[in-house]
Amino acid sequence: MAEPPACIDGWSAGYVDLTGQALRDHQGPTELPVSLALNDTAMGTLLATPDVLEPLALGHAFSEGWIQHRSQVTDIRLSRLRHGLAVRLEVPPSVVRQAEPHRRVETSVSSCGACGANEEAQLFSGLKRLGPQPALAASVIESAVARLASMRCPGLHVAVGVSEQGDLLSCGHDIGRHNALDRVIGHSLDSGIWPAAIVISSRCSVELVQKTVHAGIATLVTLAVPSRLALEVARACDLNLVCANRGHQLELLSGQLP
């Protein structure tokens, strides 16, 4: 039997041995529990990148149906917890009552932003027919995909919102793809300027379609083939769903050609 290769400069059997590396020297992304509350009512906890949390909290509250308008949030307060962070949205008491059915009462370690819902109906809350709208020109989408690639960060998803002309309107980075999308929605709520399309560096599952439709954005572009359920919902809602599968030719799977 051949002798195993000797370890040379940290290499052994095809591996770089970093098992002894201190955590402080690890270059991966940061991930912490982020607990969201409306006033004193805990609404749910996300595993998220703990940077610039205000847009994330706003976007998540809107896309989950907790709030209907930016004006309902009078203040946003951040605080530290033992193991993570807390974001408190100050809202009128009536908003808390209306949001109560949307509370995420179960803990989930899944990366799916829809996990932990009380009922199946919650997974499809906010869905509506957008009305047929032509997709953006292929050249605009291709330019947006190229810009997305230039904004990638190791270990993080990125979502960008672009205008009909392809101008960059907003950007969100997060370890969770649904959180990155919520960040773009939160920026839009704050600025009042909504993108014509969102491009996101991930596969397309149904909660991304749900969030995009709830925000009234006509076009969603992802870098991987969507799930069958995501495509079914996109077609039912008139969403332009585009697959830019790792730089290959654009595929319009739902919606109208430009």
UniProtKB/TrEMBL annotation:
Cytoplasm keyword on record: yes
Keyword Cytoplasm annotated: yes
Protein name: FdhD protein
Keywords attached to this entry: Cytoplasm, Molybdenum cofactor biosynthesis
InterPro entries: Cytidine_deaminase-like, FdhD
Gene Ontology MF annotations: sulfurtransferase activity
Taxonomy, superkingdom: Bacteria
Cited PANTHER family: FORMATE DEHYDROGENASE, SULFUR CARRIER PROTEIN FDHD
Gene name per UniProt: fdhD-1
GO terms for biological process, alphabetical: Mo-molybdopterin cofactor biosynthetic process
